[in-house]
Design brief:
By secondary structure, this protein is an alpha/beta fold. It is 42% helix and 14% strand.
C-alpha cells in the first residue's frame, strides 16, 4: 500500500469537475502514429478526450494530442544496446491544451498528477477548466500550453496490465488488519499470485517501468514540445519524477513546482510508517471537525468510534449492496482512505458511514471505487497495475514476512486505524518478482531554485517530507500551506500567487512563506 496504494488519488481528485474527492474516470486510449525518438511529433485535434472525461472541452481551449516513441531501456542516452527491452520502444501519449487568449507565450507547462499510475493526459484536461473548477489560473493558461503525458506503462502509454479484476477485488476487499496467522498467510498468497501474474507477462522487462526511466522520458517530452528547458508541475509521486529529472538534467530545468513532496531517501519501511502517521493525523483532524460540526456530520461526536465500529462489523457481517456485493472491512477502509484526500471528502465519509449503519453501502462503494479505479461493471483501469510495477521497480528494501508481521503489531498500537494496513501493504513489493532499478537521491547540482510545496494536513505525503526533499535537492525552497488534504496548488489565493509568480516570472517565494488554510 505505502506510496503504492495511498498516493495515487493525487491532485486529480481535487480538480475533477464532478464531485469532491473521487478519481476521474479514465478516457479510452487514442490511437496515433508514433514518432521516432528525437523527431517532432505530429499533433492532431482531439476534442474526444475532454468529451469522454467531462462531456465537453473547456471554453476557449483547443486540445491536441500526439504520441512519441522512447527507448524501453534507457541504459544510455539513446537507449540500451543490450539487456531487457534493448532496441524496443514505448509509446508516450501527450495532450496539449492551448487557450485562444494566449499571449506572450513562455512555453509549455508539463503536468504529472502522481500515483504512480495516474494519467497526466486526464489531469491536463481538468486543469484546463480554470479556477471555477479547481483548475489553473488564467494568468498561467494565458502564458503556457498545458501539456499532460501518461508515463510509460500508464493509461494510454503502452499500459501495464497484469492483475485480474478478481484479484484486485480481493485485494481491496481484504481485511486491512489480518490478525490471525491464517488470514495473514492468505494475504501473502494473494500478493504472491499477483506478482507471479505480472512476472509471467512481463518477465525481465519489469524494471523498465522504474522512475528513473520515466524521468528520462520527460526529457523527450520537453524536446517534443520544443522547449529548451523544462517548466514542470508535479503532484505527489510527480514530485519524485521532477526531483529525479532535476538530478539527471539540472541544466535543462527552467522551473519545477513539486507539490505534495515524496522524500526520495525514505525506504519502504520508513515511507510506510510515515504514511501511517500522516493518515492517522488527518483522521484526527476529521474527527475534531466532526465533533465541532455535528449538523454536517451524522456520526458525531465520535467519528473515530463510528468508523472503527463500521470496519469491525464489516469483518463479521458485511452489508450487502446491489447485486449482492459485500461491503467488507477492506472496502470500508478504502472509503475512509479516499475521503481523506480532500477536506470536502470529510462530509462524504460521515454520510457514507451513517448510511452504512442504516444498511445502505452505496456511498461506501462510491468512495472506495473512486479510489480504486473500479467501474460499475467490476472492471478496473490499469491504475494499480502501473502503480505496483513502478513502486516495486524503484524499491530496494525487502523486509521479511516475519518483519512485516512484527510491524503490523507494533503499528497497530501507534497508528490503530492505518498502521496495520500500511504494514501488510508492503507485501506487494516483497512478493514482486522483478529486479530493482532505484532512482538517484542526491543534489541537483547546477539546477535553478525548485519550489517544494507542502500541506500541513496532507495524509498521503506528510508535511515532514517537504523539507526533506528540498534539502536533498540542495536548491529547494519550501512553500507551506496550513491546510488539509493532499496537495495545495491552486487552492488558495496565497498559494496561487506564489506559484504563479514563480512559473511566470521565476520569482522564488520568500524563505519560510506560510499560507493560511483560507
Amino acid at each position: 500500500m505505502r506510496r503504492a496504494r495511498l498516493t495515487l488519488a493525487g491532485f486529480a481528485a481535487a480538480v475533477v469537475v464532478t464531485a469532491g474527492c473521487t478519481l476521474p474516470a479514465f478516457a479510452p486510449r487514442t490511437e496515433g502514429e508514433a514518432a521516432a525518438p528525437g523527431t517532432t511529433p505530429s499533433w492532431h485535434d482531439c476534442p474526444e478526450v475532454p468529451n469522454e472525461l467531462v462531456g465537453r472541452g473547456a471554453p476557449g481551449m483547443r486540445y491536441e494530442c500526439a504520441r512519441i516513441a522512447v527507448p524501453r531501456n534507457r541504459g544510455t542516452a539513446t537507449g540500451a544496446t543490450a539487456g531487457p527491452g534493448a532496441g524496443e520502444r514505448f509509446e508516450i501519449a501527450l495532450i496539449r491544451a492551448r487557450s485562444n487568449k494566449q499571449h506572450d507565450r513562455i512555453g509549455s507547462l508539463v503536468i504529472n498528477p502522481g500515483g504512480p499510475g495516474a494519467s497526466g493526459v486526464d489531469t491536463a484536461v481538468y486543469l484546463s477548466f480554470g479556477p471555477a473548477f479547481g483548475g489553473l489560473p488564467a494568468k498561467v493558461t494565458d502564458r503556457f500550453d498545458i501539456v499532460g503525458f501518461d508515463p510509460r506503462g500508464v493509461s494510454r502509454s503502452s499500459p501495464v496490465k497484469c492483475i485480474s479484476d478478481a484479484d484486485l477485488d480481493a485485494s481491496f476487499g481484504y481485511d486491512p488488519d489480518p490478525e490471525s496467522q491464517a488470514s495473514f498467510d492468505e494475504f501473502v498468497a494473494l500478493n504472491r499470485r499477483i506478482g507471479q501474474s505480472c512476472g509471467h507477462r512481463y518477465g525481465n522487462q519489469l524494471p523498465l517501468y522504474a522512475t528513473e526511466q520515466a524521468a528520462r522520458d520527460m526529457d523527450a517530452v520537453r524536446a517534443a514540445v520544443g522547449d529548451e528547458k523544462l517548466t514542470y508541475l508535479g503532484y505527489s509521486y510527480g514530485t519524485l519524477l521532477g526531483a529525479t529529472y532535476a538530478q539527471l538534467y539540472p541544466q535543462r530545468v527552467r522551473a519545477l513546482v513539486l507539490d505534495g513532496a515524496v522524500d526520495p531517501q525514505q525506504k519502504l519501511i520508513a515511507g510506510s510508517e510515515s504514511q501511517a502517521k500522516g493518515f492517522e493525523r488527518a483522521f484526527d483532524n476529521f474527527n475534531r471537525w466532526c465533533a465541532a460540526n455535528a449538523g454536517r456530520c451524522p456520526i458525531a461526536p465520535d467519528a473515530r468510534g463510528a468508523v472503527t465500529s463500521a470496519i469491525d462489523k464489516a469483518r463479521v457481517s458485511p452489508v450487502r449492496g446491489t447485486g449482492g456485493r459485500e461491503a467488507t472491512s477492506g472496502w470500508v477502509f478504502y472509503a475512509v482512505i479516499s475521503s481523506l484526500y480532500t477536506e470536502s471528502g470529510w462530509q462524504e465519509l460521515a454520510r457514507a458511514i451513517d448510511r452504512l449503519q442504516g444498511g445502505d453501502p452505496t456511498d461506501v462503494f462510491k468512495l472506495a471505487d473512486a479510489y480504486a479505479g473500479r467501474e460499475d461493471d467490476g472492471t478496473y483501469s490499469n491504475l494499480f497495475d502501473a502503480n505496483l510495477a513502478v513502486n516495486c521497480a524503484d524499491e530496494t528494501e525487502k523486509p521479511t514476512r516475519e518483519r512485516i508481521r512484527q510491524l503490523q503489531s507494533q503499528w497497530r498500537e501507534k497508528y490503530p486505524l492505518f498502521g496495520p494496513a500500511l504494514a501488510v501493504g508492503m507485501l506487494g513489493c516483497v512478493e514482486w518478482p522483478g529486479q530493482r532499478d532505484p532512482y538517484p537521491t542526491g543534489k541537483a547540482v547546477g539546477a535553478p531554485p525548485v519550489v517544494v510545496v507542502g500541506t500541513t494536513g496532507d495524509p498521503a505525503t506528510p508535511y515532514e517530507q517537504t523539507a526533506a526533499l528540498a534539502s536533498m535537492l540542495g536548491v529547494g525552497r519550501v512553500l507551506t500551506w496550513e491546510g488539509e488534504g493532499h496537495t495545495a496548488y491552486p487552492q488558495t489565493a496565497c498559494i496561487s500567487a506564489a506559484v504563479d509568480a514563480y512559473l511566470i516570472s521565476l520569482t522564488v517565494p520568500r524563505e519560510g512563506l506560510r499560507c493560511p488554510a483560507r
